[in-house]
Specification:
Elements lengths: L6 H5 L8 E12 L2 E12 L3 E6 L5 H8 L7 E6 L2 E2 L8 H10 E4 L12 H11 L4 H15 L14 H13 L5 E5 L7 H16 L3 E5 L3 H7 L2 E5 L16
Parallel strand pairs: 3-8, 3-9, 6-7, 7-8
Antiparallel strand pairs: 1-2, 1-4, 4-5
């Protein structure tokens, strides 16, 4: 059975006249012949904190990649801030640069995200790609490193850092671009207790600052702490309504 409910109507009170920042309409995607997302119709408003829940293989990571413009609708559509994101639109360098500036993706595996010789170069990479002047780049690196508590790591090689340090650096790389929306894929995976506690607090700070959060996780305690509403992904790679509903007001 295919579920085409909008979790926004299932799990939170609708807010009239609030335009969607992220909008999927009957979005479908398959890897070869294997469905990954089926008939996704979902609206996420600016400032929402949304948690994607579901078993492995239910489509959570695929949905995050679609939000970030890393894969595209094979049926239906996806719009960010009213503009349709397609393979064709992403070939426009100005459009793709702007999208990647406004949406940050923090991978589950930080090693997949870090590639520069030093932490300082990692954090500076995004702002430089945005075409900012070196003075502005330096200020953004300074601010991001201070906010993430990694000032002492600036000259270190990312590959030599601990798992928790790598996670902080990966977040700093995104934070330095000051995006509107942050996508996290299993953000607490592999972290020790102190780093998990710090990251939970940081997610709450981002939300309080008005940033849009879309978080894929199996961690119910994280979900209960940060979710405005849940999106449950079922076995059929679409929505599945569940009796557990938790809304942070």
């Amino acid at each position: 059975m295919t579920h085409t409910h909008d979790p926004q109507t299932l799990h939170r009170a609708n807010e009239d006249d609030v335009p969607a920042l992220i909008a999927f309409d009957d979005f479908c995607y398959a890897y070869d012949e294997t469905p990954a997302l089926r008939h996704i119709t979902l609206s996420i408003s600016a400032g929402d904190s949304v948690v994607l829940m579901g078993d492995n293989g239910s489509g959570k990571s695929t949905l995050l990649k679609a939000i970030c413009g890393l894969l595209f609708a094979q049926r239906g559509s996806y719009r960010f801030d009213g503009q349709e994101v397609t393979e064709r639109s992403m070939r426009d360098l100005a459009f793709s640069k702007r999208l990647h500036q406004r949406i940050g993706f923090i991978f589950q595996d930080s090693d997949a995200q870090l590639f520069c010789a030093s932490v300082e170069d990692e954090v500076a990479f995004g702002p430089r790609q945005m075409g900012l002047g070196e003075q502005e780049v330096a200020q953004r690196v300074e601010d991001a490193c201070r906010l993430l508590g990694i000032e002492k790591l600036r000259k270190r090689a990312p590959y030599a850092l601990s798992g928790g340090e790598k996670k902080r650096v990966a977040i700093a790389c995104i934070l330095s671009m000051n995006p509107d929306a942050f996508c996290f894929d299993e953000p607490l995976a592999g972290l020790d207790a102190s780093t998990r506690l710090w990251l939970l607090g940081f997610l709450k700070q981002l939300h309080a600052a008005g940033k849009t959060l879309v978080i894929a996780t199996h961690d119910q305690s994280l979900a209960d702490e940060v979710a405005d509403y849940f999106v449950y992904m079922g076995d059929h790679h679409g929505y599945e309504d569940r009796p557990h509903v938790h809304i942070n007001q």
